[in-house]
Design a protein that fits this description.
Layout (H helix, E strand, L loop, with lengths): L2 E12 L2 E13 L4 E5 L6 H8 L7 E6 L2 E2 L5 H11 E4 L11 H12 L4 H14 L15 H12 L6 E5 L7 H18 L2 E5 L3 H5 L3 E6 L2 E7 L6
Parallel strand pairs: 3-8, 3-9, 6-7, 7-8
Antiparallel strand pairs: 1-2, 1-4, 4-5, 9-10
Helix pairs in contact: 3-4, 3-5, 4-5, 5-6
Bound molecules: adenosine-5'-diphosphate and magnesium ion.
């Protein structure tokens, strides 16, 4: 699915005063793209990602994903749209601490409905196997390393075969080598499942692996470069 953003603005209230953190952002991301969003801390990367994924509503402007204008949906419709089309991976993993790895991956499958318990179990096990964690299915998050927790989170994000995967600094809490492996996995899954991948990262090496790098500064896009060297 492609994403088309027009005139996107976000204003937060900060100490009672409006603080505009995104300024009229226009952006088009084609289906199956692999885009890295980079920029200094506070430049609006997380805010932009949340709006693209339909987690939040903008103050102004529009986000269209495929044929769907997110602004035309109610809160419930957006939640359903996300469940069916979007995966999200966070810097801090966001696993449910009281559930095992396998149970964490089962959650979105159970919420989606339409699969019986045996099919859910089989799919969750296949996903954990795909991320190299078949042997950790019954571990709780606290019993897993950071890299393992992030792999569980990736398996969970891919559970419902999302058309688009958003990842907000998915390697930010990992050492460099583990981070490389996490990005290898995202890139492989992006190719295999033909998912659109939109990744926020601080890491220049990781950003360099994307086919396109969009740089934010002060809530504006200040650079947009394709890997083949052509400006977007
Ligand atoms: N919920 C919020 N309320 C008020 N200000 C916010 C909120 N979320 C983010 N901000 C502010 O918006 C700016 C952009 O934040 P963010 O999108 O998280 O940037 P980045 O991910 O690039 O570090 C920052 O100045 C931040 O303090
Ligand atoms: Mg951020």
């Amino acid at each position: 699915m492609d994403i088309v953003v027009k005139g996107l603005e976000q204003t937060y209230l900060s100490g009672g005063r409006p603080l505009k953190v995104l300024h009229a952002v226009d952006l088009e991301i084609e289906a199956e793209a692999f885009v890295a969003i980079v920029g200094p801390s506070g430049s609006g990367k997380t805010t932009l990602l949340g709006l693209l994924a339909g987690l939040d509503r903008p103050s102004a402007g529009s986000v269209r994903i495929g044929d769907v204008d997110l602004g035309a949906l109610t809160e419930d419709e957006r939640a359903r749209f996300r469940a069916e089309n979007v995966g999200f991976v966070f810097q801090t993993f966001h696993l449910i601490p009281t559930l095992t790895a396998l149970e964490n991956v089962r959650v979105p499958l159970e919420l989606a409905g339409g699969m019986d318990a045996a099919a859910i179990r089989a799919r969750a096990e296949a996903l954990l196997d795909r991320v190299g964690l078949a042997g950790r299915a019954h571990h709780y998050p606290a019993q897993l390393s950071g890299g393992e927790q992030q792999r569980v989170a990736i398996a969970r994000a891919f559970a419902n075969r999302p058309r688009i995967l958003f990842a907000d600094e998915p390697t930010g809490n990992l050492d460099a080598e583990t981070g490389q492996r996490i990005v290898d996995l995202l890139v492989e899954l992006n190719r295999e499942a033909r998912t659109t991948l939109v990744l926020v990262t601080h890491d220049r090496d990781l950003a360099a692996r994307a086919r396109r790098v969009v740089r934010l500064a002060g809530g504006r896009i200040v650079e947009d470069v394709r890997r083949d060297g052509d400006p977007a």
